[in-house]
Design brief:
Layout: H1 11-19, H2 21-24, H3 38-50
């Protein structure tokens, strides 16, 4: 799933990006290849939301 060009970051868009960054955002130079485990993605998203 490809995200729109203007991204509103929320739990859903973060999950999509963390799953497959190169597929979600065209042209990203991120060397992270994604996290396939939904439990680990949920922990990452909870951590990021806690930084607000």
């Amino acid at each position: 799933m490809r995200l729109p060009s203007v991204i509103t970051w929320n739990a859903k868009t973060l999950d999509t990006f963390i799953t497959a960054p190169q597929s979600a955002v065209k042209g990203t130079k991120m060397s992270f290849f994604g996290e396939k485990d939904p439990t680990k993605r949920a922990v990452i998203i909870a951590y990021l939301q806690g930084l607000k």
